[in-house]
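Interim report to the steering committee. The following record documents the input for Steroid 5-alpha reductase family enzyme (273 residues).
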Amino acid sequence: MTGGTDWSALGGDVWATVASVAAVMLLTFAVALRMGVHRIVDVAWGLAFATVALTTCGFSAGEGDPARRALVTALTTVWGLRLAGHIAGRGRGKGEDPRYARMLDKAPGSRNAYALRKVYLLQGALVLVVSLPVQAGQYARTPPGPAAWAGCAVWLVGMFFESVGDAQLARFTARPENRGTVMDRGLWSWTRHPNYFGDFCVWWGLYLVAVTDGTTALAVLVSPLLMSALLTVGSGKRLLEQHMADRPGYTAYAARTSGFFPRPPRRTADGRS
């Protein structure tokens, strides 16, 4: 044991974590083949994190501090299930996601085999890396301290931006008169990506909840850094803005609205925000 985290116990049980993530991804792949669309892997993203939290909570019984284990499990599971439910509802009745359609159109050989490697197994590997704070937090033997409670506050900010931003966008897009227009109201007037900013806060919050000492801080730092990169320069913000670039009004919206971190909208030359 080093610095309050029982790394040997975590390493001994890591097979269960890997197996649980693989089960989620392979089951999702089987369902996708039956449905004929691979977009449902986005639902599995949140479910896989919840599965990691529940699996490590069960295997860390008697190893980690009960209060910290309960905190890590609850925060991760609530986030994962909310995200999975939101994405499932948003995609109900729709066809393939254009991102996956473009990727699979370029697939060498079997499209499904390519999807298994490049989508499902890759996302499973990302889940295992990003969830390192969740895994480490379950095996921490010290009770939650000031850093953990600060992490809970950051997590709450993230959940607010993510859930409220998603709800505002859903109400906006549900109105036929808004079809083809740009959402620039509510939280979307403060940041072009309140949901991605929310994810950013959630994972930095979970990082703070898991950290017990300098060793743990360095060992699991790759998690929030990787999630931040995915959200800002990976498959999140960058791809969405490429998709939105030609929509009428988007250039003006981007000029007055923060690209990521929230701030009041800039005023335009005519004095309007």
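The longest helix spans residues 7-35. The committee is asked to note this result when reviewing the revised timeline.
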